[in-house]
UniProtKB/TrEMBL annotation:
Organism: Inquilinus ginsengisoli
Coiled-coil portions: none
InterPro entries linked: LysR-type_TF_proteobact-type, LysR_HTH_N, LysR_subst-bd, WH-like_DNA-bd_sf, WH_DNA-bd_sf
Name the record gives this protein: DNA-binding transcriptional LysR family regulator
The HTH lysR-type domain, residue ranges: 1-58
GO molecular function: DNA binding
Family affiliation: Belongs to the LysR transcriptional regulatory family.
Keywords assigned by UniProt, alphabetized: DNA-binding, Transcription, Transcription regulation
Amino acid sequence: MEWGDVRYFLALARAGSLSAASRRLGVEHTTVARRVDALEAALGMRLFDRLPRGWVLTPEGEGLVADAARLEEEALAFARRAAGASGVAGEVRVSAPPVLASHFLAPRLGPFLAAHPGIVLTLAGEKRAALLGQREADLALRLSRPAEHGVVARRVATLTFALYAAPAYLDGRRPEEWCFLGDDESLGELPQQRWLLAVAGARPLVLRTNDLATLVHAARAGIGVAALPCFIGDADPGLRHVAADRDGAASREIWIAIHEDLRRSPRLRLAMDAIGEIFTRDRWLLEGMAGR
C-alpha cells in the first residue's frame, strides 16, 4: 500500500466530490480518482460508492476515516518537527490577507531578503485563513486572534479604517446626498462594513464588491464614499479623508501566527521576527496617524 494514497482517501471523504477534493489538494480530479482506486485495490475493499451526486463512503470506508485522520496528523506532526529543526536557508511560506500582502508587506521585504539570500519567501494573499496545523503555511497574518489548536500568535498592529471619497465627488455635494460603496455580502459581517452601514444610515449603498482594489478605484472615480484602510486612503492623492472611526468600531487587530512545533526553526523564527518588526515600525501608517 502507498501511504500517500491515504491522504487522497481522506480528502475525498471530507469533500464528498472529486472536484472539491482536487481543489483542496491542488491536483487534477483524475489524480484523486486514480489514487483512491489504487488504495482500494491494495486493501481489497471498496471505500466509496460512485454515485451521480458524488462519491459516498461505504460502511468499510467510514470505518477507516478516523484511522486515516490519525495517520495524517502524525505525518503532519513529523513534518512540522522536521521543519522546526531545519537551518536558516530554505522556503518560508507566509499567508496574509490580500490587502496586507500586496499593499503593505511586499514593498517592505527587500532589506530582509537581501540580508538573507538563502531564504525564499512565498507570500500568498488569501482571504481565507490558512490552516497552520495542516502545513498550508509556515506563518500567517490574521485580522483576528487565531483560535486554531497548537497555534501561537502575537499582535503586531491595528488596522484602522476611515471614510474616503474623490475630491470632485465631495465638492458641491452635501453629506446627505452622499452614496456609499461597500463590501460584498459574501465577505460576511465585517467590522468595517457594519461601521459603514451605521454611518450611511438611510443613504444608499450603490456598489458592493469583494475586492479592495475595486473599492479603491470606484471611490477614486467619484462613484461614492468608501470605508478603506487608512494606510491606503491616506497615501492616495485621488482620495480625500471624509470621516475617522473615532470609536474603533471598524478596527481590526493584526496578528502573526505560527504552529508551536515550528517555533524552534531558525529560518521561521528569523522571518517571523523580521515581519513583526516591519509591522511594529510602520504601525503608525496602519493605525491612521499619517498626515493627521
